[in-house]
Specification:
The structure holds 3 protein chains of 3 kinds.
Chain A lengths: L1 H4 L1 H11 L6 H35 L15 H11 L10 H18 L17 H11 L1 H10 L3 H32 L4 H7 L16 H17 L11 H4 L10 H25 L15 H22 L5 H28 L9 H24 L13
Chain B lengths: L3 H19 L24 E5 L4 H4 L7 H5 L5 E11 L5 E11 L8 H5 L5 E3 L15 E2 L1 H4 E3 H7 L1 H24 L9
Parallel strand pairs in B: 1-6
Antiparallel strand pairs in B: 1-4, 2-3, 3-5
Chain C lengths: L1 H22 L3 H21 L3 H25 L13 H20 L2 H4 L10 H10 L2 H22 L12
Helix pairs in contact in C: 1-2, 2-3
Classes of the chains: A mainly alpha, B alpha+beta, C mainly alpha.
């Protein structure tokens, strides 16, 4: 088990051992950074083509299948296109901000990958408050959206940027609140600690992932919805919907800067997916104890891929939400539900003594009801804002 | 139940996704340009001239009556009459066009020229792969480029071609019957 | 030595950001330089091993307060006004210099500068949480009340008025 499982750690140690002793921490840090950038860069390329093909199949058509076998070299073609396009900066644009905006978006997102544990002993940084670091870095990228929209000196860009920021701020609240039960019950903000807290097993060898508890399931759903909104993906892609506002804050960007925005958006998606896997799906643990022989980074990758497929599936299925529907959904449904989820997690913790007894299903059902009923009522309240049925007046 | 619509939608797309791998006819697209979609009878793109028989210029049904040139809304048809006459399908001598040019970059595929032609000489084609790198001359189609045999017309628009051919046959038959029923003039003069 | 270089860099970034926020003509640039100053301050916290404080500073100041400032600038259209030099700028400079001199004098004379540096306290998040819930629970609750009051105020200001009944048709 330890051979295949720790292979990347071993490679890192061996390679860093070749450097002189005082430079070894620096070299090992650089190796970790290079590894993360290589893996997630390749992941970005694969995801763009996989998304187009899966979307195509779900829409009863093939995806791109001309460039390379099954269209797998399409990212190369897209890359060449993006790099060779002319970089147009509008005449009245604020040149410094216009140049800096893609950088301010992409750099913090790369930073967020440093705390994710990709396998056993495989996180680049083991911070004591890893989750806080992750959210702090994520919130720094919202300024980039504003910079992009403002510097273009374009009404559509500005309106798109304001909508995007309003959306991102509104959905940060359920995003952070839905992770608080996990932190509470794991007792630590460190991501390695949270993964370790999900490492034990219950009856039948089923791992104690947070998603197998009612508050964990609700928390995962809330987190995934908020994450879809944070990365401006359909059905929350009002800021960049082509039929709405041309391209929103991305209107005046072309060529490599547009590619950087695209990259930043997808990397943000990967980062929150990695966090969801770590917090709710047990990180690099296997679902059953008798499956622990497989390498841990393979389990992380498998869960990661399943979540990315879920995001693509949601994109293919759901229509775009309007701005007021979006904001109502966040403030009137997701935020109260995350607070109630916190209370349910506390109730779960207090009834911990019921677990070994036959009352375990009662505990599950009780906590599930405690969160499902308010969800139902909040949903009904949200729908109640529909306008009354129209009264038609016909000409006599 | 809240969220029932979302679940139904997700099931539908999942069914599409899974079905696309083992049901080829679920996928409505074709691998163009290796395959093309089957043609639809009433589709139209640009006009062409019909000719009967083997020789394109001799069998052209067009009699240079100039009606389509007058009626064309963007005025993309340019006709010059020829002084020589040729016989039509009934044996009557008709004029013919010396120059018949249609500027395809101007033509808007309205089909008015087809509607007004009294001789069933101009019909709508279904070609769309007309890309050329010569902006002006490449899309200016003359007599030869526009002419297509009647068999081609029948292949494209079966119903319309059958109707036209049936009508022309009927007229020929009626004329032949009338000629046969006429008593011979005295003195052997025909 | 590396520590001092790092501190000098962070301090320079913070000061430069603050000075730029005061002196630039374009208001949006000022707001973004202020965000840069906040980030520099967070870097200083991190350099002092106060991880929680540093990341909370980033999350709150750069992630929320800076965005609030730019929204305010956008919604009040203040960025189009070119600030003109004030006619009483000499008085302003004098007062500023006096205040700076007082501050420098009091900092230089403070005992903390001459004593030995205090021991770095390990502050894992668990310990911060325990202190907040036991020793500092009253300030925590007071801040919570303050934030709730602010939120209620915002909601009341933004509350839609109930629609007036339609006047009867003539």
């Amino acid at each position: 088990m330890s051979g295949a499982d720790q292979i990347f750690v071993w490679i890192g140690h061996e390679a860093a051992g070749w450097a002189p002793a005082p430079a070894q921490p620096l070299v090992s840090a650089i190796l970790a950074i290079a590894g993360i950038m290589a893996v997630f860069g390749a992941c970005f390329a694969l995801t763009t083509v996989a998304e187009r093909k899966i979307l195509g199949r779900m829409q009863n058509r093939f995806g791109p299948n001309r460039v390379g076998p099954y269209g797998l070299f399409q990212p190369l073609a897209d890359g060449v296109k993006m790099l060779t396009k002319e970089d147009i900066v509008p005449f009245s644009a604020d040149k410094t901000l216009h140049f800096l905006a893609p950088l301010v978006l992409t750099v913090p997102v790369w930073l967020a990958f440093a705390v994710l544990p990709f396998g056993r002993n495989m996180s680049a940084l083991d911070l004591d408050c890893g989750v806080l670091f992750f959210f702090a870095i994520g919130s720094a990228s919202e300024l980039a959206v504003f910079m992009a929209g403002w510097s273009s000196q374009n009404k559509y860009s500005l309106v798109g940027a304001m909508r995007a920021i309003a959306q991102m701020i509104s959905y940060e609240v359920p995003l952070v609140l839905s992770t608080v039960p996990v932190l509470m019950l794991a007792g630590s903000l460190s991501l390695n600690g949270i993964v370790a807290a999900q490492g034990s097993h219950t009856i039948g060898g089923l791992a104690r992932w947070n998603v197998f508890t009612p508050w964990g399931l609700a928390g995962l759903l809330l987190f995934l919805i908020a994450a879809t909104a944070e990365s401006n993906r359909s059905p929350f892609d009002l800021p960049e919907g082509e039929s709405e506002i041309i391209a929103g804050y991305l209107t005046e960007y072309s060529g490599f800067k547009y590619a950087l925005f695209f990259l930043g958006e997808y990397l943000g998606l990967f980062a929150v997916t990695g966090l969801a896997v770590t917090l709710f799906l047990g990180g690099w643990h296997a679902p059953f104890q008798w499956l622990e022989w497989a390498p841990s980074w393979l389990w992380f990758g498998a869960k990661f891929s399943v979540l990315i497929f879920l995001f693509i599936w949601a994109r293919a299925t759901l229509p775009r939400l309007r701005l007021d529907q979006l904001l109502n959904f966040s403030w009137r449904f997701l935020a109260p539900l995350s607070l109630i989820n916190l209370a349910v997690a506390a109730a779960w913790h207090w009834t911990g003594a019921w677990e070994s007894a036959a009352a375990a299903p009662v505990r599950w059902l009780l906590c599930a009801a405690l969160i499902a009923l308010p969800a139902h009522w909040l949903g009904r309240a949200l729908r109640g804002r529909l306008p009354p049925p129209r009264k038609y007046r016909y000409a006599e | 139940m809240n969220g029932a619509g979302i679940i139904k939608g997700l099931v539908e797309t999942a069914r599409n996704f899974a079905g696309s791998y083992h049901d080829r006819e679920r996928l409505t697209t074709v691998q163009y340009p290796e395959e093309t979609l089957p043609p639809v009878e009433n589709a139209r793109t640009l006009p062409f001239l019909v000719y009967d028989g083997g020789d394109a210029m001799a069998g052209l049904r067009c009699t240079a009556c100039m009606i389509c040139e007058k009626e064309c809304p963007p005025q993309c048809i340019y006709i010059i009459k020829d002084q020589a006459r040729k016989p039509d399908y009934m044996g009557k001598m008709q004029l013919q066009p010396k120059v018949f040019d249609i500027d395809m970059s101007v033509c808007m595929s309205c089909g008015i020229c087809v509607e007004v032609c009294p001789f069933d000489a101009i019909k709508m084609d279904q070609v769309f792969e007309l890309s050329t790198d010569d902006r002006f001359a490449g899309l200016l189609f003359d007599n030869e480029k526009l002419a297509r045999p009647n068999e081609y017309f029948r292949q494209l628009h079966k119903t319309e071609a059958s109707e036209v051919d049936a009508r022309r046959e009927e007229e020929k038959r009626k004329a032949a019957a009338k000629a046969a029923a006429k008593p011979p003039l005295p003195g052997g003069v025909k | 030595m590396l520590n001092e270089i790092a501190f000098l860099l962070c301090a320079t970034l913070t000061l430069a950001g603050a000075v730029a926020a005061m002196t630039l003509r374009n208001l949006v640039h000022c707001a973004l330089c202020a965000a840069g100053a906040f980030a520099g301050l967070a870097a200083i916290y991190l350099q002092l091993d106060a991880e929680f404080a540093g990341f909370a500073q980033l999350l709150v100041y750069v992630g929320a307060v800076a965005i609030l400032i730019v929204f305010t600038i956008l919604l009040t259209r203040g960025a189009e006004i070119q600030p003109a030099a004030s006619p009483s700028w000499r008085m302003g400079v004098t007062v500023g210099a006096l205040v700076t001199a007082c501050l420098i004098g009091s900092i230089a004379a403070s005992p903390g500068l001459h004593g030995s540096p205090p021991q770095t306290v390990q502050a894992p998040v668990k310990r911060i949480g325990e202190q907040l819930m036991n020793q500092y629970v009253m300030p925590l609750e007071a801040i919570g009340l303050l934030l709730t009051a602010a939120l209620l105020g915002a909601v009341i200001i933004a509350l839609r008025e109930p629609p007036k009944p339609e006047p009867p048709a003539p």
